[in-house]
Amino acid sequence: MGxxxxxxxxxxxxxxxxxxxxxxxxxxxxxxxxxxxxxxxDGIEKQHIPVLAEGVKKAMTLFVGSEGASQIEKRIRLI
Amino acid sequence: MRANRINIVWYFxxxxxxxxxxxxxVKPGGEMVLTIVSDLLPVxxxxxxIVALWGxxxxxxxxxxxxxxxxxxxxxxxxxxxxxxxxxxQEIILxxxxxxxxxxxxxxxxxxxxxxxxxxxxxLVRGYFKSDFPIGNQLHLTMVMLFLVLLIAxxxxxxxxxxxxxxxxxxxxxxxxxxxPIFDIIQVIIACALLFIVRKFKGGLVxxxxxxxxxxxxxxxxxDIMFSYFSWNDxxxxxxxxxxGWNAGYLLIAMAGLYQKNLVKSLDGGV
Lengths: 79, 271
Fold this sequence. Notes:
The complex is a heterodimer of chains A (79) and B (271). Chain A is built from 2 helices and no strands. Chain A is an all-alpha fold. Chain A has one domain (8-77). Chain B is 80% helix and 0% strand. Chain B has one domain (3-266): Rhopdopsin 7-helix transmembrane proteins (Up-down Bundle), CATH 1.20.1070. Chain B is globular and about 55 Å long. Chain B starts with a helix and ends in a 5-residue tail after the last helix. In chain B, helix 1 runs antiparallel to helix 8 (242-266) and helix 2 (30-59) packs parallel to helix 8 (242-266). By secondary structure, chain B is mainly alpha-helical. The relative contact order of chain B is 0.14. The interface between A and B is medium-sized, with 31 and 31 residues.
């Protein structure tokens, strides 16, 4: 898996999500969460992480249930 | 369940399919044994699906819509098991000639199964379209929709119209004959929607359960549609290769449950 993001937060979220949903959808998920915040992937900063983590949790609930999605949210919040 | 354990389960599934093919091709013991095997294998396969899906349901700790969706599919498999068991009982023990009866108690279980499974699968598809995940290429989506419209049109002409137009068949019998292909068409549409969604999750762990459950229901729906066509034309008999689609369908759904359980367990306390 190559480093697809210059932004370290985006790269770390990508590293968490891509084993679960694949590289293509991990990029898509990060992009759509950033769009909701009105920022680009390169513009992610520390203060965006809680909102991004919450958004990812909501989306991932479908695949892994609320508990699994909460674990993913916690991983992202720890970045 | 570790990867090597799931591989063992795959070998077990392949062994069942192989046994199924062996009995249909070689027919050891003649037609009587073939009838018993073709009646009992779906019972065994649906029971395997129940056990696997129960594990999946238990793996989800929080009672959210994902857990509800898998629970409904689990209940649907129980209904299928009851349908298969009652069908076997009637044919093997009571010696009822089910080929010449329009409906029996088994049909009630199978119809219930459709309702549970279709609702469960719809929750998953609806959940995806409500999530923030991208829908994907609009052209591909349009092509899939056109394919499905064409498929439905063909099925209506080939399967539904002859049943509707038949003047000799009683109305209730017609309703039973019509309900199966209608439910199957809905099931095919939902399974295709799931396959359309999962193709974008290449390399992701979430892909396996969704792909397997979609394939499982697709196998079952295609077998059902073929069964409806052949039985309406009096060309279906016990030990038909169509049965393989149902058995493979149940087993693929069981595997979907195991992969989903593994995925959920892998995230347990995984911070």
